[in-house]
Amino acid sequence: MQGYVGARLRERGPAPDGLTLVARLPSWLKSAGNRDEVLRAIARLRSSLDT
Q1: pLDDT for 7-24, tens place per residue?
Q2: Could you give the CA distance from residue 7 to residue 14 in angstroms, rounded to a whole number?
Q3: Domain residue ranges of the chain, discontinuous segments joined by +
Q4: What is the pTM of this model?
């Protein structure tokens, strides 16, 4: 998830039936305008799991 959100260029590969995890994500999560905030939230979640 972190890799997808942080990617500046998101290339799509062939997907069976067009149903991918990315297709099911909400648009606000995929928006470049929210990238920094989403990455910070992912980092906070990861750090809470490490402790």
Answers
A1: 888 877 776 676 778 888
A2: 18
A3: 26-51
A4: 0.72
